[in-house]
Amino acid sequence: MNLPNALTVFRILLVPVLVVALLDQTPGGDLVAAVVFAVASMTDAVDGYIARSRNAITNFGKLMDPIADKLLILAALMSLVSLNRVDAWVATVIIAREFAVTATRMVATQQGVVIAANWWGKVKTMVQVACVFFLIAFTDSPTWLDILVYLTVAITIVSGIDYFFGLRRLMREAEERHHHNVHPESSA
pTM for this one? Predict the structure, then answer.
């Protein structure tokens, strides 16, 4: 258990704290939830940086880091839906995209195709984190936050489309390499 993996486990352990802080309706609960969400989100950036800089990337981290990220966002969204702070369709679009990408990424990995995070995926994550943080921090819904929610949905959809087109291209290239290796052209 290295430091990046410990931070990932810590982030997972913060998920129920976040949900309780949001749903308990105690005075200051939203502030606690916003701080917990911000700390958990920061550990994501920190654990990745530490793992790369110390060459401490592990199989546990490769598996659990994205799961921890998704648990944090999904738990917060479901809690916010139950509090009527975000529409269920918004959470459904985001959650569906995350499940679809995760499932196809697992299938692709089993077939030897590794899909690295790209620019759209990174922007999507940053915008989702900002949107969820502000939804937690602001109990009312100012116009700028409504715009941010719609922007988040749009970026989530665009990043999903970009992911699937990129996946299709990578799968086609992998199949062409496999076909070429299985049936090499004979030279005479």
Answer: 0.85
